[in-house]
Design goal:
- By secondary structure, the chain is α+β, with helices and mostly antiparallel strands.
- 38% of the residues lie in helices and 26% in strands.
- It is built from two helices and four strands.
- The chain has helices spanning 37-55, 71-86; strands at residues 6-8, 16-22, 28-34, 60-66.
- A four-stranded mixed β-sheet has the order 1-2-4-3, with helices on one face.
- Strand 3, helix 1 and strand 4 (60-66) form a beta-alpha-beta unit.
- Helix 1 (37-55) crosses helix 2 (71-86).
Length: 92
């Protein structure tokens, strides 16, 4: 699967910006920047990883900048970025 750089989300309060770029190795590498990473970092990373796994996206690096997004918002942003990165429409 060919991956290109893609971004979804904003840096507004209650949102998360997701940037997906091709990785250097198989798997998903997640770099998280969040003021609540100490409390919710593992959960945020789990939602990102689970969403990408469900979409069959592998071999990527994810840069996530969280501003207090809920799980449903994180899932929506990751899905949008993955669709943009892969060119596959998951909504059909």
């Amino acid at each position: 699967m060919e991956i290109k750089e893609a971004i979804a989300g904003t840096l507004e309060s209650g949102d998360i910006m997701i940037r997906i770029v091709p990785g250097q190795k198989p798997g998903v590498d997640i770099n998280l920047s969040s003021s609540v990473a100490y409390q919710f970092g593992n959960q945020i990373k789990r939602v990102i990883a689970d969403t990408l796994a469900e979409l069959g996206v592998d071999g990527v690096t994810v840069e996530a900048t969280d501003k207090g997004a809920l799980d449903c918002t994180i899932r929506a942003r990751v899905t949008t970025a993955a669709v943009r990165a892969t060119g596959r429409d998951v909504w059909r």
